[in-house]
Design goal:
Order of helices and strands: EEEEEEEEEHEEEEEEHH
Number of helices: 3
Distance between the termini: 24 Å
Length: 220
Amino acid sequence: KKSTLVLSQAGKPSAEVYVKKWVDYSSKYGLGYLLSNGACGVFFNDSTKIVLDPSKEFFEYLERRSTDRLEIISVYSLKSYPKDLHKKVTLLQHFRSYLEGIKTQPVNFVENAEQLPAGSRGIPLIYLKKWMKTKHAIMFRLSNKIVQVDFQDKTQIVLSSENKLVTYVNKKGEPSQHPIATALESENAEMAKRLKYTKEILTHMLNNNQQGASTANPTK
């Protein structure tokens, strides 16, 4: 179990949703994660995804159509969903118990239930779109366009394309924010090195190259 550091700006919690905790169980099922907004999800090994909303009342299940690679979102109540999703919902609850440190009670569900109408859930939930592990770090790409890299030495880079900001958390857990446009030229050599590594991994990820990025160690 690993957890990231809490991001803040001027002492206030960040409004951006990011991965707060995660656990890699891809050797068997997938990667489970807890977002800073309280939502909990799993990126399964078959590339399907499930995310439970912060109120813990409904979940979204996402799978890609093989014909056009379009992602199809289905929405169900935690008490009413198709029987073939039972195993994945059970795994979601196990990951949630582990990451939140709580014991979740089994829910009696209604089999083969109808989806919830689209308007009943408000805006789509933020979820993990892609992730990739390298020798020195793990990268997350979220549906809100946040790119987050957690390094093994506890430093962290978070890129926000919406706000055009880089948040860097150093080894002491101290966050600092910089404009994306000038961050690579920063006098903070530690951050610049990790940002360069982040760009390399992101390029590999976008090219669907799962072999990892540069062999250089950004944490030295």
